[in-house]
Amino acid sequence: MQINLKFIVDANAIAWHLLDYASNWHYYVHENLGKWVKKNVVERDKLHNILESYANMRTPFGWQEEINLLNWAARGFSDEMFSKLRPLVNDWLELKLNDGRTIKEAANQAEAQIYPYVEILQSKFAALNVDEMVGKLHKLLPEAEIFDELPAYVVWSPIEGSTQGGANGAGVYSEIGIPTSEKTLESTFEVLVHEAFHKLVDPSVTFDSWKELEEIDQKYEHIQEGNQSLNGHLEEMVIYSAVDVMLFGEDPKVMLETNVKSSPKYKQMWEHTYKFFPILDDYVKGRAEADITKERIIAFAREIVGNF
What are phi and psi of 129, to 5 degrees? Predict the structure, then answer.
């Protein structure tokens, strides 16, 4: 198996991502880009109307269409599937910023600034050699879809250091803040790989087939009151352990101590990763077979639900 990330930098995709986040169409959308847009767009009334109308039209598509929407943007907004959004996008592209550029001009400039980093990202991904790790995880979690090549969009954030990303659909994306430091570029790369593993390994699909998790999941959903499912939470444990810890060398204990005062969700993520990591580490390094690892994951699920 040879896995490739197809890095894509496109001005229309950049402009669309800025609109999508500025609209705050869903409560999970981070507010930082919206705040920047509202501060930097000259025509406030027109901006308000575009964002409000866009959010209302965008919501029914949901998160699952995020990569399809990026693909639509990269094809020049030409597909009919999202055609009702096109008039709003056209108005959006012509909005003026405080520095005199239109959104379209700013996106074109951002594309030119980001594009030179593509070769660096490609080299870093080739050097990482994820094929062996993904192959081992597929033996434990065999229900994932197989991707030989995965689209990986790199989109502009006007906020220095911002590297938000996602994996909603058949592809991934990450922001890259401009100006770009070496630290920001590395963070963007790590986000892209983290998100790519969500698609390449897709642990939830296999977890959904484990009947032992169904009963535990019902109790977990009651505790979480409609937030992330148990299988989704376990997926994060797999990805954080495999990517952030094994591939990029994060120390889960240090990350837990560092994030004690951060958001409760992020603190809990590293608390559970700290406990989960030895399970995956034993499997990947050959100290435990797949069937034993499955039993340990189920026991871990019972433990974390029981401790709420």
Answer: 55, 70
